[in-house]
Each structure stands twice: as C-alpha cells, then as structure tokens.
Amino acid sequence: MVAEYVVEIFEYLRELEPQYQPNPNYMENQKGLAWKMRSILVDWLVEVHDKFHLLPETLFFAINIIDRFLSQRVVSLVKLQLVGITSMLIAAKVEEIMCPSIENFIYMADGGYTEEEVKKAERYILQVLEWNMSYPNPLNFLRRISKADDYDVQTRTIAKYLMEVSLIDHRFLPFPPSQIAAGSLFLARHMLNRGEWNANLIHYSGYTQEEVTPVVEILIEILSKPTKYQAIFKKYSSKKFMKISVIVQDWMCKNVSY
Q1: Domain 10-129 class?
Q2: pTM of the predicted structure, to 2 decimals
Q3: Cyclin C-terminal domain: which residues (predicted)?
C-alpha cells in the first residue's frame, strides 16, 4: 500500500466492513443446511485452496462470498459444494495473477458439476451480490497491526493460523474482519509472551483488549477441538508454516483446561 495514503486507506476499509458483513443468522432461513455443513465445506475449501497454492487473501474472500450469498439465497445441500467452488473461483479471479481453470475446480469436486453449471452459478452469485467485490480482507488489517510489533514473523504466522481457524465457526460472523485480525494477533502475542496490548497496538488495530476479548474466547474454545479444523491444522503443521499449529496445540495443552 502507498505509505502516504495508508491511514486514509484503512479508514476506508473500516467504512467498507458493514457492507460486506453477512447475516450471522442466515442459517435460520436455510431449509436443508446446518452450520455443521458450512464447517465441513470450509474445511474442504482450505484443502482445495492449499492444493492450488492460492494466496491467503483468496481463501478469506471466498468464504465471505459464500456467507454473503447464503445470507440472501436459500441453497440446497446438493448445490452447496457448487456454491463453494464457484465462490473460490470468483475470489481467485479477483486476487490471483494466475487463476486455476474451471476444469481444475470441477476436478476437485470429483466432476460433480459441468463447466456450464459453474459458469451459470458464477453469473448468478455475482448478480445476487451486485458485483460488490471490494472486500476488506482481514489480512490487510493484520499487516497494519503488525507494524506495531515490528512485523514479528512468528507472531504474525500464528495470527494467520488463528484467522483461518475462525473461518470454520459461524460464531465469528458478527465480527468485522478488523476485529478478528486484532483478536487473532492479541492471542498470538499472548501465546508467545510478547507483552501487553499497549497503546501502540490499540492505535494500529483500533481495538482495546476488552473489545478483542470476545474473539479470543471463541478462538480458545475452538482450539480445544482440533478435529473441527483438520485441514487447517495439517496445513500449518508443515515446515513452510513453522509448524505453528503444533506449537499452538502444545500451548493449549499446557495452559487451557479442556
């Protein structure tokens, strides 16, 4: 981002957040779906995202597209995976330099859909969302807050892991991306004993410790049940991600009563 305009850019992103906030209770209007099915879909999409080596931004954007679409339209269980891969396709077209082909996405779905079905779903989703694609990605906020701790790599990697874990659970839907980013970095710093949530961190995040506490509490509860986010745990257990998920789980075992 252009340093000269960084403050204005983040003010603009914060203003955008309410426009991209899904209905946190949308499952009440879905007839054949449940929150557990959403969790399974997200966990699978994490695998798809990882196999295609897509940017982290693409994953967060794809899940936001799914949630916003399901907030406005009733979808059957047999079409849920189609909504998932199509949302990932749309997000990849926006975020990636090289986007995987429709054929690749169909292959990941075991050939369950035709190219025409995906194209039709793509057009329909974009129409329902009125082509609003300027999503204020939580990773943008994380980068901003990381300036306050000199971009500590381990802290930021744990925060990224926690942010991906948050995608699994619908209880994070009421929180804006900036608050999830702040809560994730707060917990990451706490796990690594990086000190208090000081005035500098409050300034760059826009949130006090009290304001991030609800996010932190849900994260800790989810982390106590790693079976809910197996794909994310496996992904972050690799050397590429500094085996962060193993470090976090070790911290949980030592510090949290299950």
Answers
A1: mainly alpha
A2: 0.94
A3: 136-250
